[in-house]
Predict the structure.
Amino acid sequence: METKKLSETQLEVTKEIITQTKTEIRVYERDFIEKQILDITKQRDEMIALKEAELKEVQDILTEMDRLKIVKKPIDIQNEPSL
């Protein structure tokens, strides 16, 4: 692994990633694959429902901030990193 300091806050790391490729032979039953599709779809739908609830919560918080006239913190241009 090689490292290089780029700045007071950044370190560049160069490393070799070795992966092993192997071939597997698997046998699947149709019933198993159909059940997998149902299970994965159910898990996906549950995750989407959780994320939608989370999104609604933060949207409600933002709406309350708007109602209370809470604004963004001003950007201090002098302390912003240059591009």
User: Anything to note?
Assistant: The beta strands are 2-5, 11-14. The mean pLDDT is 86. Residues 31-67 form one domain.
